[in-house]
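Lecture notes, unit on protein representations.

Consider one protein chain, 456 amino acids long.
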Amino acid sequence: MLRRFVTGLIAAVTAVTALVFAFPDMKADALTFSPNCKVTSDAAILYNADVDAIVYEKNADKKELPAELAQIMTAVIVLEECEDIANTKMTAEQEMFDEFKKYEYPSDLRYANIKAGDELSVEDLLYAMMLTSSCEASTMLSIKFGSGSQSNFVEKMNKKAEALGMTNTRFTNATGLYSARQVSTAKDMLALLKYAMSLPRFERIACTASYVPPTAEARGKTKNWTWEHSNLMMFPDNDYTCTGVTGIKTGTLAEGGRAIAVKASRDGSNYLFISLNAPINNEKGKSEFFHLEDAKNVLEWAFKHLGFKEILAQDMELGEVTVNNAEGDGHVLLKPAKGFSCVWSDTFDPNTVQKIPDWPNQVDAPVQAGDVLGKLTLKYSGETLAVLDVVAATNARRSFWKYNLSEIPGFFKSKYLNATWIVATIITVIYIALCIVFRVRYNKIKKARQEAKIKK
Protein backbone atom coordinates (compact mmCIF):
# COMPACT_ATOMS: atom_id res chain seq x y z
CA MET A 1 0.00 0.00 0.00
CA LEU A 2 2.83 2.40 0.90
CA ARG A 3 4.57 1.68 -2.38
CA ARG A 4 1.33 2.30 -4.27
CA PHE A 5 0.84 5.64 -2.46
CA VAL A 6 4.41 6.81 -3.24
CA THR A 7 3.97 5.87 -6.88
CA GLY A 8 0.70 7.80 -7.04
CA LEU A 9 2.24 10.83 -5.32
CA ILE A 10 5.12 10.93 -7.81
CA ALA A 11 2.66 10.72 -10.68
CA ALA A 12 0.59 13.57 -9.22
CA VAL A 13 3.66 15.79 -8.76
CA THR A 14 4.75 15.06 -12.32
CA ALA A 15 1.29 15.95 -13.64
CA VAL A 16 1.16 19.23 -11.69
CA THR A 17 4.65 20.16 -12.92
CA ALA A 18 3.62 19.47 -16.49
CA LEU A 19 0.57 21.68 -16.11
CA VAL A 20 2.62 24.54 -14.68
CA PHE A 21 4.96 24.54 -17.69
CA ALA A 22 2.16 23.97 -20.16
CA PHE A 23 0.21 27.03 -19.00
CA PRO A 24 2.62 29.81 -18.00
CA ASP A 25 1.37 33.19 -16.89
CA MET A 26 0.19 35.15 -19.91
CA LYS A 27 -0.19 38.89 -20.41
CA ALA A 28 -2.32 40.60 -23.00
CA ASP A 29 -0.38 42.06 -25.94
CA ALA A 30 -2.30 45.27 -25.41
CA LEU A 31 -5.31 46.68 -23.64
CA THR A 32 -6.57 49.48 -25.84
CA PHE A 33 -8.79 52.40 -24.91
CA SER A 34 -10.58 55.07 -26.95
CA PRO A 35 -9.56 58.70 -26.40
CA ASN A 36 -12.21 61.31 -25.69
CA CYS A 37 -11.32 63.24 -28.84
CA LYS A 38 -11.77 62.93 -32.58
CA VAL A 39 -8.81 61.48 -34.50
CA THR A 40 -8.87 62.81 -38.04
CA SER A 41 -5.89 60.82 -39.32
CA ASP A 42 -6.90 57.72 -41.24
CA ALA A 43 -4.56 55.55 -39.16
CA ALA A 44 -2.99 56.08 -35.75
CA ILE A 45 -1.33 54.20 -32.91
CA LEU A 46 -0.24 55.10 -29.35
CA TYR A 47 2.43 53.03 -27.63
CA ASN A 48 3.35 53.12 -23.94
CA ALA A 49 7.10 52.51 -23.75
CA ASP A 50 7.03 51.91 -19.98
CA VAL A 51 5.04 48.68 -20.26
CA ASP A 52 5.75 47.86 -23.92
CA ALA A 53 2.07 48.01 -24.85
CA ILE A 54 -0.15 49.58 -27.48
CA VAL A 55 -2.88 51.49 -25.64
CA TYR A 56 -4.74 53.00 -28.59
CA GLU A 57 -5.00 52.19 -32.27
CA LYS A 58 -7.07 53.19 -35.27
CA ASN A 59 -6.70 51.26 -38.55
CA ALA A 60 -3.24 50.31 -37.32
CA ASP A 61 -2.87 47.56 -39.95
CA LYS A 62 -4.23 49.56 -42.89
CA LYS A 63 -1.72 50.21 -45.67
CA GLU A 64 -1.01 53.90 -46.18
CA LEU A 65 1.64 56.07 -47.84
CA PRO A 66 4.24 56.69 -45.10
CA ALA A 67 5.35 60.00 -46.64
CA GLU A 68 8.66 61.28 -45.22
CA LEU A 69 8.34 58.94 -42.24
CA ALA A 70 10.11 56.56 -44.62
CA GLN A 71 13.24 58.62 -43.89
CA ILE A 72 13.34 56.99 -40.45
CA MET A 73 14.38 53.80 -42.23
CA THR A 74 16.88 55.80 -44.30
CA ALA A 75 18.43 57.04 -41.06
CA VAL A 76 18.49 53.50 -39.60
CA ILE A 77 20.44 52.10 -42.55
CA VAL A 78 22.95 54.97 -42.50
CA LEU A 79 23.49 54.84 -38.73
CA GLU A 80 24.10 51.10 -38.83
CA GLU A 81 26.59 51.34 -41.69
CA CYS A 82 28.52 54.50 -40.80
CA GLU A 83 30.63 54.40 -37.65
CA ASP A 84 31.99 57.96 -37.89
CA ILE A 85 29.09 60.12 -39.04
CA ALA A 86 30.82 63.36 -37.99
CA ASN A 87 33.94 62.84 -40.13
CA THR A 88 32.49 61.02 -43.13
CA LYS A 89 32.00 63.71 -45.78
CA MET A 90 29.95 64.02 -48.97
CA THR A 91 29.92 66.60 -51.74
CA ALA A 92 26.63 67.41 -53.44
CA GLU A 93 26.46 67.03 -57.22
CA GLN A 94 23.79 68.58 -59.41
CA GLU A 95 22.80 65.31 -61.08
CA MET A 96 21.79 64.00 -57.66
CA PHE A 97 18.94 66.50 -57.60
CA ASP A 98 17.84 66.46 -61.26
CA GLU A 99 15.03 64.01 -60.51
CA PHE A 100 13.26 66.62 -58.38
CA LYS A 101 12.66 68.80 -61.47
CA LYS A 102 10.51 66.01 -62.93
CA TYR A 103 8.60 65.22 -59.75
CA GLU A 104 4.83 65.36 -60.25
CA TYR A 105 3.95 67.03 -56.92
CA PRO A 106 6.45 69.85 -56.29
CA SER A 107 4.61 70.92 -53.12
CA ASP A 108 5.81 67.65 -51.52
CA LEU A 109 9.49 68.62 -51.87
CA ARG A 110 11.25 69.84 -48.73
CA TYR A 111 14.61 71.52 -49.27
CA ALA A 112 17.47 72.28 -46.88
CA ASN A 113 19.28 74.71 -49.23
CA ILE A 114 21.95 72.19 -50.17
CA LYS A 115 23.48 73.09 -53.51
CA ALA A 116 25.90 71.42 -55.91
CA GLY A 117 29.43 71.67 -54.56
CA ASP A 118 28.39 71.85 -50.90
CA GLU A 119 30.40 69.52 -48.67
CA LEU A 120 28.61 68.18 -45.61
CA SER A 121 29.19 65.36 -43.14
CA VAL A 122 26.89 62.37 -42.89
CA GLU A 123 25.85 63.75 -39.50
CA ASP A 124 24.91 67.10 -41.09
CA LEU A 125 22.83 65.32 -43.72
CA LEU A 126 21.03 63.20 -41.09
CA TYR A 127 20.04 66.35 -39.21
CA ALA A 128 18.84 68.02 -42.41
CA MET A 129 16.77 64.97 -43.31
CA MET A 130 15.24 64.28 -39.90
CA LEU A 131 14.49 67.90 -39.01
CA THR A 132 13.37 69.32 -42.38
CA SER A 133 12.62 66.18 -44.46
CA SER A 134 15.32 67.37 -46.87
CA CYS A 135 14.99 65.55 -50.18
CA GLU A 136 18.57 66.55 -51.04
CA ALA A 137 19.98 65.01 -47.86
CA SER A 138 18.05 61.73 -48.13
CA THR A 139 19.07 61.36 -51.80
CA MET A 140 22.74 62.00 -51.05
CA LEU A 141 22.73 59.48 -48.20
CA SER A 142 21.01 56.79 -50.29
CA ILE A 143 23.61 57.21 -53.06
CA LYS A 144 26.51 57.15 -50.59
CA PHE A 145 25.35 54.05 -48.71
CA GLY A 146 23.83 52.35 -51.75
CA SER A 147 27.27 52.12 -53.35
CA GLY A 148 26.30 54.78 -55.86
CA SER A 149 22.83 53.39 -56.50
CA GLN A 150 19.59 54.45 -54.85
CA SER A 151 18.00 51.13 -55.85
CA ASN A 152 20.71 49.27 -53.90
CA PHE A 153 19.89 51.40 -50.87
CA VAL A 154 16.16 50.72 -51.22
CA GLU A 155 16.92 47.00 -51.29
CA LYS A 156 18.67 47.41 -47.93
CA MET A 157 15.62 49.26 -46.60
CA ASN A 158 13.31 46.40 -47.57
CA LYS A 159 15.61 43.75 -46.15
CA LYS A 160 15.68 45.64 -42.85
CA ALA A 161 11.89 45.99 -42.89
CA GLU A 162 11.59 42.23 -43.35
CA ALA A 163 14.02 41.61 -40.49
CA LEU A 164 11.91 43.87 -38.23
CA GLY A 165 8.73 41.98 -39.08
CA MET A 166 7.22 44.88 -41.06
CA THR A 167 5.14 42.52 -43.17
CA ASN A 168 2.85 45.21 -44.62
CA THR A 169 5.64 47.57 -45.67
CA ARG A 170 7.32 48.11 -49.03
CA PHE A 171 9.86 50.86 -49.77
CA THR A 172 10.60 52.17 -53.25
CA ASN A 173 12.66 55.26 -52.39
CA ALA A 174 14.66 56.76 -49.53
CA THR A 175 13.08 60.21 -49.64
CA GLY A 176 9.49 59.30 -48.78
CA LEU A 177 8.24 61.04 -51.92
CA TYR A 178 5.14 59.74 -53.66
CA SER A 179 5.08 56.23 -55.07
CA ALA A 180 1.88 54.22 -55.15
CA ARG A 181 3.93 51.11 -54.33
CA GLN A 182 5.62 52.59 -51.26
CA VAL A 183 3.29 51.63 -48.41
CA SER A 184 3.37 50.89 -44.71
CA THR A 185 1.06 50.77 -41.68
CA ALA A 186 0.97 52.56 -38.37
CA LYS A 187 1.86 49.32 -36.62
CA ASP A 188 4.80 48.65 -38.94
CA MET A 189 6.07 52.20 -38.52
CA LEU A 190 5.89 51.72 -34.76
CA ALA A 191 8.08 48.63 -35.05
CA LEU A 192 10.55 50.70 -37.10
CA LEU A 193 10.51 53.61 -34.66
CA LYS A 194 11.04 51.37 -31.65
CA TYR A 195 14.06 49.83 -33.36
CA ALA A 196 15.40 53.22 -34.44
CA MET A 197 15.15 54.46 -30.84
CA SER A 198 17.44 51.61 -29.79
CA LEU A 199 20.27 53.01 -31.95
CA PRO A 200 22.52 55.25 -29.82
CA ARG A 201 22.60 58.30 -32.15
CA PHE A 202 19.09 58.29 -33.61
CA GLU A 203 17.12 59.93 -30.79
CA ARG A 204 19.72 62.66 -30.32
CA ILE A 205 19.34 63.64 -33.98
CA ALA A 206 15.60 63.11 -34.40
CA CYS A 207 14.66 65.02 -31.24
CA THR A 208 16.88 68.07 -31.73
CA ALA A 209 14.96 71.34 -32.04
CA SER A 210 17.42 73.03 -34.40
CA TYR A 211 20.84 72.37 -35.91
CA VAL A 212 23.54 74.35 -37.68
CA PRO A 213 26.42 72.44 -39.36
CA PRO A 214 29.82 73.30 -37.81
CA THR A 215 31.08 74.55 -41.18
CA ALA A 216 28.10 76.82 -41.89
CA GLU A 217 29.58 80.04 -40.45
CA ALA A 218 32.91 79.69 -42.26
CA ARG A 219 31.07 79.24 -45.55
CA GLY A 220 28.70 82.11 -44.93
CA LYS A 221 25.70 79.79 -44.84
CA THR A 222 24.54 80.08 -41.25
CA LYS A 223 21.19 81.58 -42.28
CA ASN A 224 20.53 79.03 -45.04
CA TRP A 225 21.77 76.11 -42.97
CA THR A 226 19.91 76.75 -39.73
CA TRP A 227 17.56 73.80 -39.79
CA GLU A 228 14.62 73.73 -37.37
CA HIS A 229 12.49 70.73 -36.61
CA SER A 230 9.22 70.60 -38.55
CA ASN A 231 7.28 69.35 -35.50
CA LEU A 232 5.71 72.50 -34.03
CA MET A 233 4.56 70.55 -30.97
CA MET A 234 8.00 70.78 -29.40
CA PHE A 235 8.15 74.58 -29.56
CA PRO A 236 6.42 76.90 -27.04
CA ASP A 237 3.66 79.41 -27.65
CA ASN A 238 1.81 77.96 -30.62
CA ASP A 239 -1.52 76.20 -31.06
CA TYR A 240 0.12 72.77 -31.17
CA THR A 241 2.51 73.07 -28.23
CA CYS A 242 2.48 69.91 -26.11
CA THR A 243 4.64 69.70 -23.01
CA GLY A 244 7.03 66.75 -23.10
CA VAL A 245 7.10 66.29 -26.89
CA THR A 246 10.51 65.94 -28.56
CA GLY A 247 10.80 65.38 -32.34
CA ILE A 248 10.76 62.89 -34.13
CA LYS A 249 9.49 63.11 -37.76
CA THR A 250 6.76 64.67 -39.85
CA GLY A 251 5.75 64.15 -43.45
CA THR A 252 3.36 65.50 -46.07
CA LEU A 253 2.30 64.17 -49.48
CA ALA A 254 -0.35 65.61 -51.75
CA GLU A 255 -1.52 62.06 -52.44
CA GLY A 256 -0.89 60.66 -48.97
CA GLY A 257 -1.84 63.36 -46.49
CA ARG A 258 0.13 64.42 -43.45
CA ALA A 259 1.95 62.02 -41.12
CA ILE A 260 3.80 62.24 -37.83
CA ALA A 261 5.90 60.11 -35.51
CA VAL A 262 6.53 61.66 -32.12
CA LYS A 263 8.00 60.88 -28.73
CA ALA A 264 6.42 62.35 -25.59
CA SER A 265 7.39 62.08 -21.92
CA ARG A 266 5.67 63.62 -18.94
CA ASP A 267 5.42 62.82 -15.21
CA GLY A 268 7.25 59.53 -15.65
CA SER A 269 5.09 58.31 -18.56
CA ASN A 270 6.67 57.73 -21.98
CA TYR A 271 4.77 57.39 -25.25
CA LEU A 272 5.34 57.03 -28.97
CA PHE A 273 2.57 58.25 -31.25
CA ILE A 274 2.27 57.68 -34.99
CA SER A 275 -0.44 58.79 -37.38
CA LEU A 276 -0.75 58.46 -41.15
CA ASN A 277 -2.84 60.12 -43.85
CA ALA A 278 -4.32 63.10 -42.03
CA PRO A 279 -6.13 65.59 -44.32
CA ILE A 280 -4.03 68.44 -45.65
CA ASN A 281 -6.91 70.92 -45.95
CA ASN A 282 -10.04 71.57 -43.91
CA GLU A 283 -13.58 71.68 -45.27
CA LYS A 284 -13.01 75.20 -46.57
CA GLY A 285 -9.94 74.13 -48.51
CA LYS A 286 -7.55 75.90 -46.16
CA SER A 287 -4.34 74.17 -45.08
CA GLU A 288 -4.57 72.75 -41.56
CA PHE A 289 -2.25 70.61 -39.47
CA PHE A 290 -4.64 67.84 -38.49
CA HIS A 291 -1.73 65.46 -37.80
CA LEU A 292 -0.46 67.83 -35.10
CA GLU A 293 -3.95 68.23 -33.64
CA ASP A 294 -4.38 64.45 -33.50
CA ALA A 295 -1.01 63.94 -31.84
CA LYS A 296 -1.59 66.67 -29.27
CA ASN A 297 -5.14 65.59 -28.41
CA VAL A 298 -4.31 61.90 -28.05
CA LEU A 299 -1.18 62.55 -25.98
CA GLU A 300 -2.94 65.03 -23.68
CA TRP A 301 -5.69 62.45 -23.16
CA ALA A 302 -3.12 59.77 -22.39
CA PHE A 303 -1.20 61.90 -19.90
CA LYS A 304 -4.42 62.90 -18.15
CA HIS A 305 -6.38 59.66 -18.11
CA LEU A 306 -3.96 56.74 -18.51
CA GLY A 307 -1.84 55.42 -15.70
CA PHE A 308 -0.40 52.26 -14.21
CA LYS A 309 -3.19 50.56 -12.26
CA GLU A 310 -3.17 47.50 -10.01
CA ILE A 311 -5.98 45.26 -11.23
CA LEU A 312 -5.34 42.33 -8.87
CA ALA A 313 -3.34 42.49 -5.65
CA GLN A 314 -1.02 39.61 -4.86
CA ASP A 315 -2.43 39.24 -1.33
CA MET A 316 -6.05 39.20 -2.48
CA GLU A 317 -8.04 36.22 -1.10
CA LEU A 318 -9.73 34.40 -3.96
CA GLY A 319 -11.56 31.76 -1.92
CA GLU A 320 -10.77 28.42 -0.35
CA VAL A 321 -10.71 24.74 -1.22
CA THR A 322 -11.38 21.65 0.86
CA VAL A 323 -8.30 19.59 1.70
CA ASN A 324 -8.99 15.89 2.17
CA ASN A 325 -7.40 14.15 5.18
CA ALA A 326 -6.01 17.39 6.58
CA GLU A 327 -5.48 18.34 10.18
CA GLY A 328 -7.72 21.07 11.55
CA ASP A 329 -10.70 22.41 9.58
CA GLY A 330 -9.49 20.88 6.32
CA HIS A 331 -9.38 24.05 4.19
CA VAL A 332 -6.72 26.30 2.65
CA LEU A 333 -7.10 29.85 1.40
CA LEU A 334 -6.26 30.71 -2.22
CA LYS A 335 -4.47 33.77 -3.62
CA PRO A 336 -2.80 34.73 -6.91
CA ALA A 337 0.84 33.73 -7.30
CA LYS A 338 1.52 37.33 -8.28
CA GLY A 339 -0.45 40.50 -8.72
CA PHE A 340 -1.39 42.02 -12.07
CA SER A 341 -1.08 45.65 -13.14
CA CYS A 342 -1.40 47.37 -16.50
CA VAL A 343 -1.94 50.73 -18.13
CA TRP A 344 -5.53 51.68 -17.36
CA SER A 345 -7.87 54.55 -18.09
CA ASP A 346 -9.37 56.34 -15.11
CA THR A 347 -12.65 56.52 -17.04
CA PHE A 348 -13.05 52.74 -16.68
CA ASP A 349 -13.85 50.90 -13.45
CA PRO A 350 -11.21 48.20 -12.76
CA ASN A 351 -13.85 46.29 -10.78
CA THR A 352 -15.53 45.46 -14.09
CA VAL A 353 -12.62 43.16 -14.96
CA GLN A 354 -13.89 39.58 -14.97
CA LYS A 355 -12.12 37.11 -12.71
CA ILE A 356 -12.75 33.61 -14.07
CA PRO A 357 -11.69 30.84 -11.62
CA ASP A 358 -10.37 27.46 -12.66
CA TRP A 359 -9.46 25.25 -9.71
CA PRO A 360 -10.87 22.07 -8.08
CA ASN A 361 -13.31 22.08 -5.18
CA GLN A 362 -11.05 19.78 -3.16
CA VAL A 363 -7.47 18.55 -3.10
CA ASP A 364 -5.58 15.96 -1.06
CA ALA A 365 -3.31 16.73 1.86
CA PRO A 366 -0.55 17.68 2.37
CA VAL A 367 -0.61 21.20 0.88
CA GLN A 368 2.19 23.73 1.28
CA ALA A 369 1.75 27.50 1.00
CA GLY A 370 2.73 28.42 -2.55
CA ASP A 371 1.58 25.15 -4.14
CA VAL A 372 -0.14 25.86 -7.47
CA LEU A 373 -3.74 24.69 -7.21
CA GLY A 374 -5.36 26.32 -10.25
CA LYS A 375 -5.65 29.29 -12.60
CA LEU A 376 -7.40 32.66 -12.67
CA THR A 377 -8.22 34.36 -15.97
CA LEU A 378 -8.65 38.14 -16.07
CA LYS A 379 -10.84 39.44 -18.90
CA TYR A 380 -12.06 42.86 -19.91
CA SER A 381 -14.60 43.40 -22.70
CA GLY A 382 -13.90 39.91 -23.98
CA GLU A 383 -10.14 40.51 -24.10
CA THR A 384 -7.88 38.29 -21.99
CA LEU A 385 -5.60 40.44 -19.87
CA ALA A 386 -3.75 37.64 -18.10
CA VAL A 387 -3.91 34.03 -16.95
CA LEU A 388 -2.39 33.78 -13.47
CA ASP A 389 -1.41 30.86 -11.26
CA VAL A 390 -3.52 30.45 -8.12
CA VAL A 391 -1.64 29.13 -5.09
CA ALA A 392 -2.33 28.01 -1.55
CA ALA A 393 -1.98 30.86 0.93
CA THR A 394 -1.70 28.53 3.93
CA ASN A 395 -0.42 25.06 4.83
CA ALA A 396 -2.51 21.93 5.41
CA ARG A 397 -0.72 19.02 7.05
CA ARG A 398 -1.96 15.48 6.50
CA SER A 399 -3.61 13.77 9.45
CA PHE A 400 -2.18 10.29 10.08
CA TRP A 401 -5.46 8.87 11.40
CA LYS A 402 -7.72 10.52 8.82
CA TYR A 403 -5.51 9.35 6.01
CA ASN A 404 -5.24 5.76 7.15
CA LEU A 405 -8.96 5.51 7.94
CA SER A 406 -9.72 6.88 4.49
CA GLU A 407 -7.56 4.18 2.94
CA ILE A 408 -9.52 1.30 4.52
CA PRO A 409 -12.48 1.38 2.07
CA GLY A 410 -10.05 1.68 -0.74
CA PHE A 411 -8.14 -1.34 0.50
CA PHE A 412 -11.20 -3.55 0.15
CA LYS A 413 -11.91 -2.14 -3.29
CA SER A 414 -8.32 -2.55 -4.39
CA LYS A 415 -7.68 -4.65 -7.50
CA TYR A 416 -4.70 -6.12 -5.67
CA LEU A 417 -6.99 -7.32 -2.87
CA ASN A 418 -9.36 -8.84 -5.44
CA ALA A 419 -6.44 -10.63 -7.05
CA THR A 420 -5.36 -11.89 -3.65
CA TRP A 421 -8.86 -13.28 -2.97
CA ILE A 422 -8.86 -15.04 -6.33
CA VAL A 423 -5.43 -16.53 -5.78
CA ALA A 424 -6.36 -17.56 -2.25
CA THR A 425 -9.57 -19.18 -3.51
CA ILE A 426 -7.69 -21.06 -6.20
CA ILE A 427 -5.10 -22.25 -3.71
CA THR A 428 -7.88 -23.27 -1.31
CA VAL A 429 -9.68 -25.20 -4.02
CA ILE A 430 -6.44 -26.88 -5.03
CA TYR A 431 -5.72 -27.67 -1.38
CA ILE A 432 -9.17 -29.17 -0.84
CA ALA A 433 -8.85 -31.13 -4.08
CA LEU A 434 -5.48 -32.46 -3.03
CA CYS A 435 -6.86 -33.33 0.37
CA ILE A 436 -9.70 -35.26 -1.26
CA VAL A 437 -7.29 -37.03 -3.63
CA PHE A 438 -4.93 -37.96 -0.84
CA ARG A 439 -7.88 -39.05 1.36
CA VAL A 440 -9.26 -41.29 -1.37
CA ARG A 441 -5.85 -42.70 -2.04
CA TYR A 442 -5.27 -43.23 1.66
CA ASN A 443 -8.59 -45.07 1.97
CA LYS A 444 -7.71 -47.30 -0.96
CA ILE A 445 -4.35 -48.14 0.51
CA LYS A 446 -5.90 -48.80 3.92
CA LYS A 447 -8.59 -51.02 2.42
CA ALA A 448 -6.01 -52.93 0.43
CA ARG A 449 -3.98 -53.60 3.55
CA GLN A 450 -7.05 -54.82 5.45
CA GLU A 451 -7.94 -57.19 2.64
CA ALA A 452 -4.39 -58.50 2.61
CA LYS A 453 -4.54 -59.25 6.33
CA ILE A 454 -7.81 -61.14 5.93
CA LYS A 455 -6.35 -63.35 3.21
CA LYS A 456 -3.45 -64.27 5.41
